[in-house]
Amino acid sequence: MALNNTYDARLQQETAVGAGVQILLLALLGTAIGMGVAGWLSGLAFAFATWAVLSRALHRSALRSFGPANRVTLGRAALVGGVTALVADSFQSAPPVTLLVGLTAVALLLDGVDGKVARRTGTCSALGARFDMEVDAFLILVLSVYVSTLLGPWVLLIGAMRYAFVAAAHFAPWLNAPLPPSFARKTVAAVQGMALLIAGSSLLPHAAELTLVALALSSLAWSFGRDVAWLWRHARISTVEVAMDRGSVLAETGGTKVLELATP
User: Fold this and answer.
1) Nearest-10 crossing angle of helices 183-201, 206-262
2) Dihedral sign from CA coordinates of 151, 157, 162, 167
3) d(Cα 36, Cα 42) in Å, to the nearest integer?
């Protein structure tokens, strides 16, 4: 019991350090650009939410070490907190586009690092994969909010689609079934961040940015549609198999009773 408490304390220290790094980054951004109230509140809310949710998840997990891969993801989370603060602040004043693009680019580049680190160090875990996915999803949501101010509200569909899927899973539990690995799914997910980053940088003509983001949204809709269709087919097959198993059990039970009744 004491050993488990020691492991838990070490894990909580890691999350506290992560929250401290996020607050330090916010302080640096605030000093550099004179960030307003909206930026500070959004950045601090993200830092606190990340610390609270991650601390609870670690407490409930069986992990004995935070691991190098989770540290990379925690660093990405700090960058996402900075991006969140800059996007929130952009509603009050013109955003520092170069800084916003720079933080986003580093966060996206590091997305491919934590997975490789986990595999090479043998520290892959369900919590680490979920942590990585949630950081990615929130970054895409924040980027879609920013780009929607440039191209239109329809861009919000990119960031909202994953959360709509999670909400739908509460009413349709078959959506919670695990999906098979898919290179296409990973590619489509990566495309969303790149497309939103390019559109947010305003380096391309407006028409080109519209086309790029529209294609990204189309590919995301296709990916989600394909996964939902697979889950639906898998759920129907599982239902049929369960029904057949029950039918077999009933038939066997009924046959036994008939034999018992026929036996003098």
Assistant:
1) 150
2) positive
3) 10
Alpha carbon distance 192, 129 (integer Å): 19
Using CB atoms within 10 A of its CB, is residue 143 exposed (0-12), middle (13-18) or buried (19+)?
A: buried
Q: Which residues contact 207 (CB under 8 A, 6 or more apart)?
A: none
Q: Is the pTM of this model over 0.90?
A: no
**Rounded-to-integer distance, Cα 129 and Cα 70, Å:** 9
Residue 259 Cα distances to 112, 166, 247, 263, 264, angstroms: 63, 51, 18, 6, 10
Q: Are 81 and 139 in contact (CB under 8 A)?
A: no
Tokens of 139: 């970054």
User: How far lies 188's CA from each of 113, 141, 220, 222, 239, in Å?
Assistant: 18, 15, 6, 9, 30
Distance CA 135, CA 78 (A): 10
Cβ atoms of 110 and 75 within 8 Å: the answer is: yes
pLDDT per residue of the chain (264 residues) written in tens, 0 to 9? 444 556 567 777 878 888 888 899 999 998 888 899 999 999 999 999 998 888 888 878 777 778 888 889 999 999 999 999 999 999 988 888 999 999 999 999 988 888 888 888 887 888 888 889 999 999 999 999 999 999 999 999 999 999 999 999 999 999 999 888 889 998 999 999 999 999 999 899 999 999 999 999 999 999 999 999 999 998 888 666 555 556 555 555 554 443 333 344
